[in-house]
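Why do we care about 3D structure at all? Because function follows from shape, and shape follows, mostly, from sequence. That is the central idea of this module. The next example makes it concrete: a single protein chain, its amino acid sequence, and then its structure expressed as tokens.
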Amino acid sequence: MGINVVITGAEGRMGKTLQTVLKQYNELQLAALVEREDKYVECLKTSAVPVHVDLKEALEAAPGAVVLDFTAPAATLQFARIVAQNGAKMITGTTGLTVEQKRELSALAQKAAIFWSPNMSIGVNVLLQFLPGLARALGGDYDVEVMEMHHKLKKDSPSGTAVRLGEALAEAKNWNYKDVACCCREGIIGERPDEQIGMQTIRGGDVVGVHTVYFMGPGERIEVIHQAHSRENFANGAMRAAKWIYGQKPGKLYSMLDLLQE
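And the structure:
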């Protein structure tokens, strides 16, 4: 018997990708799908497993399952509450969570094993480990900017990954991210402050995700670029996380960094 998996937002872009990629993992088995009422019938037509509108019903039929969730902040919090009540486990890659929503997710992680990462890419999470060291080594003479590019259907800006990169860089410089993040420049704005991280956004087409971090100093520029070529990259990270979280206990909000460090 493999690890039971329940996928929420089954008819979404990531929901469909997760279903396809999961078939490559013998340790995981799809137990059920969850989709809202307006997409339920369409999902039911193509599904070989039970489809539910209510996650609670899905977990009652597959107790102890791992929930894979790439939906929207409000839905993710509702799913996390149900997971915490039912003793299940959860992997979520939802972006755009507010500070209050992150705080609630952390509180729910005290009751259930919950794993949250705004980017499930192994490569991006390795960047999060080494970029702060690069920022500290280069020092104050190097200005830092983050630019991200995504498809035109993406709803949040800057992307969750860009924000996490910005936060990591700000922490390395002992800055408060909220104080130094600059998401818009227009008009006569004066010289660039030393304590600033520009967060620039590009939207268009079907771009899966490109994140570039610039370190610009006297006489030189360093660019660190991560390009996601397909959503399967994120889905594979989620599968790896699902296998890992199955052996973890509640007590903290886990992330990809916990998985990589182990």
